[in-house]
Amino acid sequence: MSTAVAQTWYMTQRQLMVFVRQPAYAVITLIQPVIWLFLFGSLFKKVVELGGFGTTSYLDYLVPGVVVMSALSSNMWAGMGTLDEIQRGTLDRFLTTPVSRAALMNGNVVNNGLVTAFQSVVIVLLGLLGGADYPGGVVGIAVLVVASVLLGTVFGALSNALGMLVRERESIIGINTFLLLPLTFLSSAFMAPSQMPGWMRHVADFNPLDWAMVAGRSAMSGRPDWGDVLIRGGGLLTLAVAAVWLSIRTFRSYQRSV
Amino acid sequence: MSTSSGATRAPAVEARQLIKTYGDVTALGGMDLTVEPGTVFGLLGPNGAGKSTTVKILTTLARPDSGSATVAGHDVLRHPDRVRRAIGVVAQNSGADPVATGRENLRLQGRLHGLSRAGLGRRVAELLDRFHLADAADRTVKGYSGGMRRRLDVALGLVHRPEVLFLDEPTTGLDPETRAAMWDEIGRLAGEDGLTVLLTTHYLEEADRLAERIAIVDRGRVVVAGTPDSLKGELRGDAVHVELRQAIGEAGRTLLNGALGGLPGVHEVLVDGRRVSVRADEGAAAMPALLAALDRAGVGVATATVARPSLDDVYLRYAGRRYADAEADSAGDLVLAGTGGAR
Question: Closest to A97 (Cβ–Cβ): which among B93, B97, B113?
């Protein structure tokens, strides 16, 4: 057990080094959320007047939406990194050492989780700078960060599995561009559920992106509904565990194809 | 007086009837292989012959469709973990982390093999020294030259002092100077206590120079195995190549065939335009009579050389085609296979 934990830490360290040594990359991934935050924040400012947002400032409502959306959009590219590692021969090098397969995959998961948490906190702080108000305090923000990390884990692990299975950049690009916008707009990212068309609201109920937003917003509000938070959070945790398990299993089919 | 320890030592690598197909493509069609411990063994063959697939199976990366193999006494299918502890692998792309330094790459590799903290630092420093990477140890690998990367790759494979080291095409893509340096390194490995090296290559010269025993692989199976000298020795005698001043016609060819073929110790006369190739028991001894015969036939000689039989000649004999032709064929296959990658 302790070796598996140590190995996971070695693999995480290795990945974090990329993040630390290429800080430009981390900054670039933050540009898009900033644009969402201030562009949409200004454009749809008046939309709160329709009611149902639970706040009088649209920015308050928007921040959790943008945090979750950027957790999705940064993690769904994880498979590209795995493809790089396959092509460079790094994955094969690790697979011929006694390192546990779970540690190999979990290194990715922990690294992506830490990066997602960092990005989420930065976006929350940028929102604060822009005048957003978080009545739920630090606890509420922590719930939002955990929810976005779990959501990132789901899509990061699936993306890794996809990378190992199809081993083509084009497939990852295709699936991601296909998924990103529908998943975002079929959620409460930008619009209060009560203002959405009925069918969209029902679809959103099954969208894990929406679970993370609902859990985060509820926890960050003045009167959190912890039951709501737990149900959505539990759903995300279940999905995350399933996705990671699936991605570890994918090593076997990778082995059949090399 | 007599000791049986040499005879009873188990093979370092043993493969029996390995078969592996990718879709319609048969990569291995019954590969048999035995590598004695403590030797350098060369798997020689053109691209696409099945060398890399064999290495992938022996290093637990791929699973064969059927057949069995043991490495360092462990079954690759039943105990892959034990195999992984006993082997070092230097693949064609070993994928050192480009954003990490050479030292960090080596340290990580050692940790994955469970080396202790104190032992690891010493071992890493030792390898950096030995592979002339000490000066670049703390620079990121991104800035390494091709030769430096390759040396780091080999060092990565040796961190945990493996029993069997796999070198998959160690010098492909290197310039001649770097290749020569790499050959020296590999030559030194052979002397290391008990290390067995399994080397794949598509360079005849490389196998000839580095390997104590070689197996020639063609179309997914071993066509012949032995020491380079014994394989060459089975081809009778030396090759004598004579280049004529002028190409000769059909009539002259028949004449020369008769004149040269009758000489003592001379076999297999081949006349092709300006080139005359002859196989002789003793190349140097046959030369005077050969030149005299050509002189009598009134044919001017530009150059004459004697060569020991090359592995190319061996390849021709056992695989039934010239090595260069096999390479060209496989290049065609690879184009047809498209994105299928190296096999």
Answer: B113
